[in-house]
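Hey forum,

I'm writing up a methods section and want to include a predicted complex as supplementary material. The small molecule is adenosine-5'-triphosphate. I've pasted the protein sequence and the SMILES. Can someone with a working setup run it? I'll credit the forum in the acknowledgements.
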Amino acid sequence: MPPYPGRYLCADFGVMSASNKHHEFAHSGSLAGGTFPIISSDPRGHIVHSWSKLPSWLEGDPFPVPRIVLSLLIPSCVTVSSFVLPNSSSEILYSWRRWDLLLLCYLFTTTSAIIWQQMSPFEDEEPGTSAPSGSLRRLLSLLTPYVHRFVIVSVFLILSSWGEMALPSYTGRMTDWILNKEDPSAFRTAITAMSLITISSAVTEFLCDCIYNTTMSRIHTQTQGQVLRSVLKQEMAFFDTVPTGDITSRVTSDITAMSESLSSDLSLLMWYFMRAVFLSAYMCSLSPKLTIFTMMCLCVITLVPKVSGTFSQDLAVKVQESLSKANQVALETFSNMKTVISFANEDGESQRYESKMYDTYQLNKWEALAYGFSSVANSFSSLALKVGILYFGGRLVTNGEVTGGNLVSFVLYEMQFTSAVEVLLRMYPDVRKAVGSSEKVFEYMDRIPQMPKPGTHVPHKLKGHIQFQNVTFSYPKHPNIAVLQDVSFDLRPGEVTALVGQCDAGKSTVLQLLLRFYEPQNGKILLDGKPIAEYENQFYRRKVSVVSQEPALTSRSIQRNIAYGMEKVSLKSVQDVAKLAFAHDFISELSNGYQTGAGQKGGQLSGGQKQRVALARALVRDPQVLILDDATSSLDTETELKIQNVLYENAEKRTVLLISHRMNTVQRAKHILVLEDGQITEQGNHDDLLVQRGSYWKLWNKQTSSFQKENGE
Ligand SMILES: Nc1ncnc2c1ncn2[C@@H]1O[C@H](COP(=O)(O)OP(=O)(O)OP(=O)(O)O)[C@@H](O)[C@H]1O
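Reply by user p_vandermeer:
Happy to help. Structure tokens for the complex are below, copy them as they are.
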């Protein structure tokens, strides 16, 4: 099935079919063992896949595997010996004195125990990671909405796989007819039937491929959108702790690897599983003994890819992590190009990138080695299987247990089956690798944001009265450092309140809490008497607007930057707010006016221009609460004064919080809060605070004296 044709040209067997049956076998083995996933989330929001390892009647048994293996020992030995030593089944029960048989039994027991151990699923120690089989099931769950299409695909799949059995079946029959010198017309009929069935099989395969691939493309697109949506819903702490390179790599390359696995590997899995079912059924009808022997050999050789696959999957995860670290360096460098150039650190950044890439190269070498090793190991085990099957098949022929024609058919089926296994063994590590890629994607997709449930409150009228009540907060990255301690204050409607303090006092943190980027550990933040978390998100973000010191603009037109996040805003409204923010004049002078692109991160505008565009962007929403975090720091004194006038003159319309380092911008504020080491130490108006001769007085004196010095007064 495209994009992987699903047929392999084997030198010795001609065109052979491949199968993913082994993969399915391994997982159905774990199901047979009574395992099933339990999905829950830990307190940090990570999805945890845990596994109930054994059925309830076996839980609490400290030695379940040896016990089960020992109980199966004698029947297993009898079964094996019936193949190896014909007519000795009963004899073996009384032959424990024979060292060779005893050795054979223990050899079988050990092998069974190892197989059992290997097939039991992994337990998740790490929160947020899912077991490989869990990921596979999760991959399959993506297909659920398209179940009706898969029903059609399955029907075509069955018909096509069944049709493929015609060639070996009719070849066997023709052999019998030739050997028995039967009617030549029967020979012609057989050839016609065989051709018709094979052509029908090819047509159904084509239809199956078309439906399957269109469905898969749709699933790919949807998954990519789902992951991005899920990432965008995460709380700010997630973006603080997870590097941007990591997130980008998950949303782009990991999803591509995962969808490739869905479209090629999963298609192979389905296709060849069905084929293997038909092959084994036909083989069983011809010689049950030889079929059982083939299956038993398959059980043993599945160990090889299982072991090598686990190793290369671990390596694949490490390579991905290492690559994402290198990407992070490149991303950081490109986004800070001006800093890199101004400090002439191009070589330093190149070296940093090269050193990360060197780490990836080292891991890649191990990965290549592991891949080579697994290929060789798979080839050897496949060779051993072929020899074994030919040996026992030959014995059955000489014993006369199957007819000549049936033997030919059986050998043809068997060759398809073994070559399918051979291809499967070769691709098994790749499948594991793809499943490995999907683990992190699902980790992001299933991550529950650590935020309270979104609120629904949408009042008709909002006054804009903000209250901080005994708020204590530390950033998730440093949970032991309280950035705000027991902070209480009011931002009253119709007033400009200023927040001042030394660097690192926690001023911007107040803003971040107001914007609901983080949740305080203690205390409440209320808007008109209701906790801010109870307000509907869109409504809240429209009513509470912020302009920061370094506003982030996007690479779209200035008009669209001002109207960012709003659906229908006329050019006239945009121009009106731009005039209020004293941005209209400079925008009109640009080559394309409001349609001029702002450049990446607003890079084509100066710091002051960016701040004015950001102010217009906040004002266009007509917010009830406006927060300015050093928002005019890059403006010249004259423009800053003009903007201040606008704010103070329109103060009665809304609640304004002014965070500033420049003391001259805050002195007109009705209420001034002084923040020191995360605590409000003084509050009042400018004159009251100067009289107190406290921290505010010191800050004021410091700035005015340095201003006087600068002006030579
Ligand atoms: N995302 C974050 N994760 C961890 N710690 C942070 C984070 N943001 C700020 N901090 C820390 O919180 C403290 C207060 O920072 P904040 O930015 O609120 O101070 P500020 O008063 O606004 O400083 P400035 O005036 O220099 O902007 C600082 O020690 C800072 O290192």
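Some notes you might quote in the supplement: Residues 240, 475, 477-478, 483, 501, 503-509 surround adenosine-5'-triphosphate (CB under 6 Å). The chain has three domains: 7-24+31-53+126-446, 57-119, 466-710.
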